[in-house]
Structure formats: structure tokens, C-alpha cells
């Protein structure tokens, strides 16, 4: 199956799906929690962000989502400045964030319904995306009847049914057991290949970042260290599609990233 993202109005010529230029964030009148954040993400790219707790990873995602304003700099999506939430950005949370009173199909249908799409089109989108995550058979069940992994698949289907420009994932597999987590990682890789959505993915697991990402952004600093959170380094991951976590290339890169994450100063 091939599903492509709708292309929102292109008012500006740009090659980036997502761009941060010198972005900084202060909460209230406090010091800058993060500052000087520069990153360009190409369409279809998966960029992972890793870094110690409090360095501003979730803040980055929430600013793109429009849940938080940025205090300085510019964030653009397909060339258009971001200022408030919109259906062109989908958020996948660690705790799934499904509506418990809605069935699986109704959860996935939510975005298309809010967009006012006709019923037949909505049905198609729901079926396509439940198939995509392998959950067609549980369409009438409710979230509490599903395992954690299945709930997270519904959350991913719900986001993708909205055809977002970018999918924002904040430690999406952090609450899952190790086996389910591995399965979800492999499924996400396949889903991405099929859909081509741009993804920004926050994780505490360096192995997960190396398994999934085209690039890994390492953030450091944060209020507890007395300096605003910022990017320390960005690694390209050139390991191909089928990555073997036991290969020398994989473990070498993991070690390099780990050294950067834990480096002082
Ligand atoms: N709503 C808020 N009000 C005030 N300060 C906040 C708020 N949200 C986050 N912060 C502060 O901003 C800094 C960055 O927080 P953020 O949640 O982005 O970090 P993180 O890298 O996602 O951490 P973790 O790995 O623990 O999830 C922290 O010092 C945090 O205390
Ligand atoms: Mg966080």
C-alpha cells in the first residue's frame, strides 16, 4: 500500500519539511531552558533526539506542535512559520493518549472527522491506517481491551490518518516491555518506508536512535546544569535499512554517541 502525505499550501519555496533557526525557549520570566537550536529536517527523514533529562527534548517537540510558544528564533513547517497547533503535526505520546470512550476505529477517525471529510473518505482512511499498523481485526474494541503495544499502534494510526507533514514522537516506546519495543521499532521502520512521513523522535535509548534514525541529534545542557539546553553534535546514520544491532558498525556508532551524550562541558 502506498499512502502519501497531503501537501499543505506551499506559500514559500523550501526543501525542508521542518526548520529551526536559532530557536530559544524561556518558561515565563525564567532563564532560557534551551537556546540556539538550529536544525533542518528533510521530507521523509527520521531524526532522533537524545540527551540527558531536562536538556529540552520535549520542549523542542512541544514548540513544533504549537503546544508551547518559542521565545526567540523561527520554526517553520513546509516554509510556513509555526505558531499554534494544527493537523499538519501529529503527536505520539508515551502514554498513548487515546480516548478511552471511543473504539479503535473511532479514535483513528477523529482527525479526518475534525477536518470535515465525508464519511466514505473517513472510512477509507481508517481502514487503510488500521491495516498499516496491523490492527484491522480490533477496529471495534476499546483502548482498555488492548495491550500497550497495540494501543501505541492505534495512536500511530490516528496520527497518520490525519496525513501530517511531520509526526512528533516523545519517547513513544518508553512504557513498553523490551520485546514489544523491538517489534514496534521494526514496525515503525516499515510504516515509514510505506508512508514516507517525516518524523522527529525523542528517546532515552541510544540503541533505539541508531536503529531508527537517519540522523541522531545529541542535546546537552539544561537548567540543572546552569546553561541552556542546546545541540552538542549531530551524527548521520549511514547503516542502510536493515540494521544489525550486533554489527561492529552499529555498536561503534552507539559507543560514539554514548560518549558524546555523557561528555562533560
Ligand atoms: N511548563 C514548564 N514550566 C516551566 N519549566 C518547564 C516547563 N516544561 C519544562 N520546563 C523546564 O524546561 C527544561 C527542559 O524540559 P523538557 O521537558 O523539555 O526536558 P527533556 O529533555 O524532555 O527531559 P526528559 O528527558 O526528562 O523528558 C527543564 O528544566 C524543565 O524543568
Ligand atoms: Mg521529555
Automatic annotation (TrEMBL):
EC annotation from Swiss-Prot or TrEMBL: 7.6.2.9
SUPFAM superfamilies per the UniProt record, alphabetical: P-loop containing nucleoside triphosphate hydrolases (SSF52540)
Keywords: ATP-binding, Nucleotide-binding, Transport
UniProt domain ABC transporter: residue ranges: 18-246
GO MF entries: ABC-type quaternary ammonium compound transporting activity; ATP binding; ATP hydrolysis activity
Pfam families: ABC_tran (PF00005)
Protein name as catalogued: ABC-type quaternary amine transporter
InterPro entries linked: AAA+_ATPase, ABC_SmlMolc_Importer, ABC_transporter-like_ATP-bd, ABC_transporter-like_CS, P-loop_NTPase
Amino acid at each position: 500500500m502506498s499512502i502519501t502525505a497531503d501537501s499543505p499550501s506551499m506559500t514559500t519555496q523550501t526543501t525542508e519539511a521542518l526548520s529551526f533557526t536559532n530557536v530559544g525557549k524561556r518558561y515565563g520570566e525564567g532563564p532560557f531552558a534551551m537556546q540556539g537550536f538550529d536544525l533542518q529536517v528533510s521530507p521523509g527523514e527520521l531524526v532522533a533526539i537524545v540527551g540527558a533529562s531536562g536538556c529540552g527534548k520535549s520542549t523542542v517537540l512541544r514548540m513544533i506542535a504549537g503546544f508551547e510558544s518559542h521565545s526567540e528564533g523561527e520554526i517553520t513547517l513546509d516554509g510556513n512559520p509555526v505558531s499554534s497547533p494544527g493537523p499538519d503535526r501529529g503527536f505520539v505520546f508515551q502514554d498513548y493518549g487515546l480516548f478511552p470512550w471511543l473504539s479503535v476505529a473511532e479514535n483513528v477517525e477523529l482527525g479526518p472527522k475534525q477536518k470535515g471529510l465525508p464519511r466514505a473518505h473517513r472510512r477509507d482512511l481508517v481502514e487503510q491506517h488500521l491495516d498499516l499498523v496491523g490492527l484491522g481485526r480490533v477496529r471495534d474494541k476499546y483502548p482498555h481491551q488492548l495491550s500497550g503495544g497495540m494501543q501505541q499502534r492505534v495512536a500511530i494510526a490516528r496520527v497518520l490518518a490525519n496525513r501530517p507533514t511531520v509526526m512528533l514522537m516523545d519517547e513513544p516506546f518508553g512504557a513498553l516491555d523490551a520485546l514489544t519495543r523491538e517489534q514496534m521499532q521494526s514496525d515503525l521502520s516499515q510504516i515509514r518506508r510505506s508512508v514516507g512521513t517525516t518524523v522527529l523522535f525523542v528517546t532515552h535509548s541510544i540503541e533505539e536512535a541508531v536503529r531508527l534514525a537517519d540522523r541522531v541529534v545529541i542535546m546537552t545542557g539544561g537548567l540543572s546544569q546552569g546553561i541552556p539546553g542546546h545541540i552538542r553534535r549531530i551524527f548521520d546514520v549511514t547503516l542502510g535499512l536493515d540494521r544489525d544491532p550486533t554489527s561492529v558498525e552499529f555498536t561503534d556508532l552507539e559507543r560514539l554517541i554514548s560518549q558524546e551524550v555523557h561528555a562533560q562541558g
